[in-house]
Design brief:
Length: about 325
């Protein structure tokens, strides 16, 4: 099963890579809990994406978007211009570690060591510059070794001069992972002089799969310049995300910035990193059904798609034996080809 999954991911990667040269933008997201001085729970993540916002320019990207479009729910969209984009998540990884990762045996109540290595696509459509719908499909591998989490964690500990973490015996078993997510966002705002303004972006969503299953509601409030260009910060799922969307405004300033704050609440039915493996018994903890993310940060961007953002996320306790809430930082940078 593992070899078949890797082969499928390689085929998908090679096919998409042949089209990446025609992408209009590239986005990299890096996340880590170093800012909080910890090395536990969600400890590290990254995502490298290529974004196509001129679909007629690339047959492959246009075909993938058309394939996903029937499942992209846009009912209730307002009248107005439509803008579409496809994001190819070339590779992403998230790593989750026990609180006492340095112990040779698992501490009672500690979460399993696990990782999630994935690739996939996100199709997004903006309507009337006030509604954004997106559909994301991710496939990959969950576990300690298949996700490369053990290898990456060991390398980082070595670079920092720390002892190699003890993992064997309390990691998730390897299994294929699938995640399908739909999100809707609305933009409600007002503008002032010289392109300045304020807005609020409420959101709802639903995610399903053996990796994560949850419903979400949230909102981001922003103040800044040229706010019609973006939809707020993009962080690694399950955090709140602006779908990496850029919507140039010919009447707005060439560059913009904003400061933001908000939340996302999730009703969680499944989290494989806490509940344990899907098809066999494994280490697990008792998951809490409700999780709250508080976010704050700032971003700077241009009409052409260059951007840089920093987001601080405070995530409430996700399982009953978790010692404290999780705090981590997320940095995202995008360039235009």
């Amino acid at each position: 099963m593992r070899s078949a999954l890797r082969a499928a991911c390689l085929v998908l990667g090679f096919v998409a890579l042949s089209s990446a040269a025609h992408a209009q933008r590239s986005l990299f997201i890096g996340e880590n809990d170093t800012i909080a001085g910890t090395d536990r729970d969600y400890t590290n993540g990254f995502r490298q994406s290529f974004i196509f916002d001129n679909l007629p320019a690339d047959h492959f990207a246009g075909s993938v978007f058309d394939f996903m479009k029937p499942a992209l729910i846009t009912a209730g969209a307002p009248a107005g211009p439509v803008r579409q984009q496809l994001e190819w998540i070339a590779v992403g990884q998230s790593i989750f570690t026990p609180d006492k990762v340095g112990l040779p045996t698992r501490a009672p109540g500690d979460r399993p060591f696990s990782g999630w290595l994935y690739t996939g696509f996100n199709a997004a459509q903006e309507t009337g510059k006030t509604q954004l719908d997106s559909l994301e499909v991710l496939v990959g591998a969950v576990g300690g070794s298949a996700s490369l989490a053990e290898q990456v964690q060991g390398i980082f500990h070595g670079l920092l001069g720390q002892s190699k973490p003890f993992i064997n015996g309390f990691e998730l078993h390897n299994e294929p992972g699938l995640l399908v997510a739909w999100d809707r966002r609305w933009k409600i705002g007002t503008t002032f002089a010289d392109g300045y303004g304020a807005d609020i972006i409420p959101s709802v969503g639903f995610t399903a799969g053996n990796v994560l299953t949850y419903g979400s509601v949230g909102a981001i409030a922003r103040f800044g310049r040229s706010l019609s260009t973006t939809w707020g910060p993009t962080v690694v799922r399950p955090g709140p995300t602006g779908a990496s969307f850029v919507s140039p405004d010919r009447d707005g300033p060439w560059w913009g910035w904003d400061v933001f704050g908000g939340f996302q609440g999730r009703a969680v039915a499944r989290n494989i990193f806490l509940d344990g493996n899907t098809f066999e018994d494994s280490v697990h903890v008792t998951r809490k059904p409700l999780v709250l993310d508080l976010v704050a940060g700032a971003e700077i961007f241009t009409q052409t798609g260059y951007g840089l953002s920093f987001t601080l996320i405070r995530r409430s306790r996700e399982y009953t034996t978790q010692q404290q809430a999780d705090t981590f930082g997320s940095v995202a940078g995008s360039i235009r080809f």
